[in-house]
Write a structure and sequence with these properties.
74% of the residues lie in helices and 3% in strands. It has 12 helices and 4 strands. Strands 1-4 form a two-stranded antiparallel sheet. Strands 2-3 form a two-stranded antiparallel ribbon. It is globular. The termini are far apart.
């Protein structure tokens, strides 16, 4: 049982960093990025292609992560500008339609050009004993990377001027504008940051399981579930939900079967919406 829970924590950390990128974009712009998983997969395929071309792994990883961040930046400066001009329901609906279209385009291109391409990053070395359980080095390295990124995110949003500006926009965009914060600039930077986090998801995921060109939809679904359970707009909520859902996922897969794990996660999300619509750490509407 300990081994199952430890595997769940490893998976949960990956779920958490996946959900953070999506929840930040929604908290700032009211847009659910339904292409988030596809962006991560695109980063994975870019990295795999560069490695196949003889580029050093670390350089290929850097190129892939930066490429996805640039994609996020481009999307914000182009398609998202029309979305941000809408109000309330119009923004949500237009954002859903546009990002769903982007996800279809990325999926189509990847499955057309690289149908059998996959990214696998092997971390060599003997397993390490954790609480009496032999853990693969790849799982531990991936978890360490995510914990470092999570710590940096917490420090960034809590102690930097831009981080505080971001939190102010999430809490009250109009109030933030009145005190001199530029919500448009904040959204642009955070959309690029969301892309960067998607790239990190691809890298850490590839250390534990291959990331192929068809993985985008599954990653997007997981990101949505994590964001909803954790509370849309809440970074700590995304990590808490990610770890809890990761444990639920591995336990249910071990005792029931992997074919029903997604259904169980969706049920957990539905129950959360009914019991606490704002999510575990989301802000309740007044």
């Amino acid at each position: 049982m300990i081994a199952v829970i430890l595997d769940g924590i490893v998976l949960g950390l990956q779920f958490g960093i996946l959900g953070v990128g999506l929840t930040l974009v929604y908290g700032l712009g009211g847009v659910l990025n339904l292409a988030h998983g596809q962006m991560a997969v695109m980063g994975a395929i870019i990295i795999a292609r560069f490695i196949d071309g003889g580029v050093h792994t670390f350089l290929a990883v850097g190129i892939g992560i930066v490429a996805v961040a640039v994609l996020g930046l481009v999307l914000d400066l182009t398609l998202m500008q029309a979305v941000y001009r809408e109000d309330e329901e119009g923004r949500v609906l237009l954002g859903l339609l546009l990002m769903l279209g982007v996800s279809f385009v990325i999926d189509g291109v990847l499955e057309w050009r690289y149908p059998i391409e996959a990214l696998t990053l092997r971390v060599t070395g003997d397993p390490i004993q954790i609480l009496g359980v032999a853990m693969r080095r790849g799982s531990l390295v991936a978890s360490a990377i995510i914990l470092v990124v999570a710590t940096l995110l917490v420090l960034f949003f809590r102690f930097t001027t831009f981080g505080r500006a971001t939190r102010s926009v999430i809490q009250d965009e109009h109030g933030a504008r009145l005190v001199g914060v530029n919500p448009a600039a904040v959204r642009t930077v955070i959309f690029a940051l969301s892309g960067l986090l998607a790239g990190i998801v691809a890298v850490t995921r590839a250390m534990t399981t291959p990331v192929d060109s068809t993985a985008g939809i599954g990653l997007t679904i997981f990101a949505l579930i994590v964001a909803v359970v954790g509370g849309l707009g809440s970074v700590p909520g995304a990590f808490l939900a990610g770890i809890l859902l990761g444990i639920v996922n591995t336990v249910s897969a071990f005792y029931i079967g992997s074919y029903v794990t997604t259904i169980i996660l969706l049920v957990v999300a539905a129950v959360t919406i009914v019991v606490r619509p704002s999510g575990l750490l989301g802000v309740r509407s007044s």
